[in-house]
Amino acid sequence: MTTARFSISRFLLCGCSYAVVLLMLLLPLVLIFTEALRQGLSAAVSALLEPDALAAIRLTAFVTVIVTVTNTLGGIAAAWCLTKYSFAGKRFLIMLIELPISVSPVIAGLIWLLLFGQEGWWGNWLAAHNMQIAFAVPGIVLATLFVTFPYVTRTLMPYMEQQGRDAEEAAFLLGANFWQTLWQVTLPDARWALLSGILLTTARAIGEFGAVSVVSGHIPGVTETMPLHIETLYNGYQTVAAFSMAALLALCAMSTVLLRTLFEHSFRKQPS
Amino acid sequence: MFFLRRHTLPGFPLTFGITLLWVGLLVILPLLALLLRPWQDGTAAILQTLHDPRVFAAFRVSFGCALFAALLDLPLGILLAWTLVRLRPPGYKIINACIDLPFAIPTAVTGITLATLYGPNGWMGKLLAHAGLQVAFTPTGIVIALMFVGLPFLVRTIEPVLQNFPSEVEEAAFLLGATPFQKFYRVILPAILPATLSGFGLAFARCIGEYGSVIFIAGNQPFRSEIAPLLIVMRLQEFDYSGATTIAVMLLLTALLCLGGVSFLRLRASRGLIMEETK
């Protein structure tokens, strides 16, 4: 009796889960690809080969590389500093590092206008020296840096915390210097967590919309990243082109999800 | 350098310096600029923005929809986490991978996709129109977009706690004669409550500031379906920096207050639970 009722409730619960995943998560994904391929694959591909679309892809790649490298280096330093030493104010520092997650993307763009925009702190100085940061590529880089700021630290820290500092202390006593310890002891051990964090940063950097939209200036072919170009195309009723670009981004997102699952599997299997 | 002596490992000044520089230039400095800007045009300008009924309406829409979405995500998050950890039906690995999709898919893509899906000619839009429901370009549309965005936060915070939940406790409850419902309500729910609360807080905070996935489906009518982040953008386009930054500071502070409140609730809820030690 109990087992029978249990299996009925199990059946119902699983059915509900399938329904939720199908309706909420998979249906939108399917829609992206059907809309993109509505006029055939060649139309979708040729939409991606338009000069403005290519420029958007190039700009996104450029911004993503800079942002990922900067935030990875900063993230490694911060994770090392926050897990291998104890010092006053550590919690506060962690809080500051995690702050960008709870800041609205629009605010993440706005703050850079307040520093480098025409009315900003250094706006006049920049204008006098003929430099532009707001409404140009450097502004886009800064906004994306802010939005993707915490991810490497956040994925590395729990792993490095659990590592402890015995291996590092042993390496140091055996005569290794700081760099040798970092590159040959700590990071090889934490490589899957690090890769997972880098991947997350990359994925966010490619797809950031709100923050970039505020500082970009929306000049097609010059300061439009892929998500901004999607908005332009969609608002111009070029649905197929918009969804082709969206499908490309969705493919990126899906491969990130897949790779991260693999990485997480690897670092769970790893003997600690 | 007073802290040099206390650390056994080398490299503290270097990594601490890099960290401070990185945090200082990319987080503290710009946020400081944001906090200082509203005062530049005097308190009168701030009060004017705060008294604007349109600002008030935008905040009501943002907070109301975010709260609704996070509340609706709550049972779904528990259900999915339960399915992933306990039931493991065929294909649960696919479900597991799908949970991360809203987090990975760019917000603009989510935005145009949901707007098309629930739009007048979309698959769901047509279906719901038969039932007399209009979703796109109404606050309901905002809630649907926010539910999509917030779901992974709940599932991913509840999942590990459920995974670490000792099966002995459940067996004890079963032996003491608890029905499945009692077991869930009395034994499991209190244990996952703290994690659920922090997942709820994360989802809520994310939903308040959400921009890209909402603006396409919202319709953006002032007083009805205009969200606060969009109002910031519009003020910026009018070069009203003082108005924009006042709204931004309010949005930021309320989001942080909500997060603080939720972590306080979490502390209250986890009092007396052994489970929390594993966190």
UniProtKB/TrEMBL annotation, chain A:
The membrane topology of this protein is: Multi-pass membrane protein
Which spans are transmembrane here?
12-33, 53-80, 92-113, 133-152, 239-263
InterPro entries registered for this protein in UniProt: MetI-like, MetI-like_sf, Sulph_transpt2
Which Pfam families does the protein's record reference?
A: BPD_transp_1
Keywords assigned: Membrane, Sulfate transport, Transmembrane, Transmembrane helix, Transport
Molecular function via GO: ABC-type sulfate transporter activity
Compartments where found = Cell membrane
Cited PROSITE patterns: ABC_TM1
Q: Indicate yes or no for the key word Oxidoreductase.
A: no
**Highest taxon of the source?**
Bacteria
Q: Which GO terms describe its cellular component?
A: plasma membrane
Q: Where does the UniProt entry say this protein principally localizes?
A: membrane
Q: Where is the ABC transmembrane type-1 domain?
A: 57-264
PANTHER family in the cross-refs: SULFATE TRANSPORT SYSTEM PERMEASE PROTEIN, SULFATE TRANSPORT SYSTEM PERMEASE PROTEIN CYSW
Q: How does it assemble?
A: The complex is composed of two ATP-binding proteins (CysA), two transmembrane proteins (CysT and CysW) and a solute-binding protein (CysP).
Q: What job does the chain carry out?
A: Part of the ABC transporter complex CysAWTP (TC 3.A.1.6.1) involved in sulfate/thiosulfate import. Probably responsible for the translocation of the substrate across the membrane.
**Name the UniProt record assigns to this protein:** Sulfate transporter permease CysW
